[in-house]
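Continuing the batch. This is chain 6 of the set; chains 1 through 5 are on the previous pages. Same settings as before, nothing changed between runs. Recording input and output for traceability.
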Amino acid sequence: MKARILLLSILLVVTGAALLYSFDFGVVIDNSSSVSSKEGEGFIQENNAHLWLNLPLGESWVFNASVMGTFSTDTDKPLLFADVETLSLKGTFPHLENGANLFVLELGRFFHKEFSGFVFAHRMDGVRMEFGYPSSTLQIALGYTGLLNKYYTSLVMSKLDALDDLDKDILLAPRRLIGNISWSIPELFARQNLNFSILVNEDLRHLFETVIKEGKETFDPSSGGLVDTQYFGVGLDGPLSKGLFYSAFFYLGTGRMLTFVPDSQSNTGEAYLYKQILSGLGGLSVRYYLEEFFQSVASLQILYATGDSDSISYIEGNKSGTAKMFLPISGNSLGTAFQPKVSNLVAAELAYSLKPFTGVKGFILESLQAGAKLTPFFKASKGAMSEGEVDPAAGAGYLGTDLSVFANLRPFSDLGLGVSLGFFLPNKSAFLPGKDDPIVYGQFVFSFSF
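Output for chain 6:
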């Protein structure tokens, strides 16, 4: 009875607000069909429906809400699942007296990313504040991930996270507290932009369930410990000349990870101990825009993420000393048929795209964009990677090359189409026996909104 009264109250508030203020709403339907020759994947089709609402509340506040539902043929996921995609109240306040020139406050569920996008780019529930000053912008965000539907997330950092990801009875994402402080200084010199970021990831699992405690002397394959991480980043980006732009960044990763290692003080000679994490991630990208030649874009992107030579697995695999493998929370990756996480990795992506019919006004193919990407991958050091097919015992060196072609078309403002085809040619000596076959991947994407 109380639930019905609460639901009715919410409907009355939303209806009353809608009558008082103008609002926008709509539906987006998209389909993603993919096929991969990689073992265990095959053909997968996902159909998604997004219902969204944008409701202004006075001069300063905006209510944003969207829900999504998915029909999936992926055997690792339910046939049908759904989640609240966005649910936030956002206030914008310019020219505060004795304060910032601009203050923005957002409460609820929203998407957040640090400036590179390779360490954290994900939704969370919490609060975000932005303070705009004449010469810089300060942003503070704090959020919780444990209420998200796990089938829309990619938050797997610990052994317990991985076990929950495989358990179909568990629907929610790992319980992690994410904090981010970022400071951006635009056009500090010669139109160059400087960014600083501190990102904290705190594992809250021990507050809700039993985890392995430090000092346990017997190995337990059905459980694990906590993984807490911190990241300290700096980035610089801007133009080098007309049409030529670059961005560069570096993150120092720290934290702790529970590992089962030899211990002279243990009765069994081994014990679970927390080991410190000390790792690094660096990136450089250069983009050249040639608008007069079919809106061409050529780019080169290089990534380097440290590895751990004694690590036997990506998840809690460190066996001695400091854990040196960079461990992102949930971020972007490179490649099409082969997409390893930015961990124990060196990669260089060379890409080119153009719009061949951009000068033919009114032609249905005017918006067509076509391109290709070439991405050679290397292993930064001996040890494990995120892809289980890679041999942890293999040393640093060449992994293989990912080659892909793609095309995107938006013939109408509410209709989008995309297709991509990728090939990964592995270096057999870097992969486990029987796991070194070439990978062919194809994807078709369809999106319609009204």
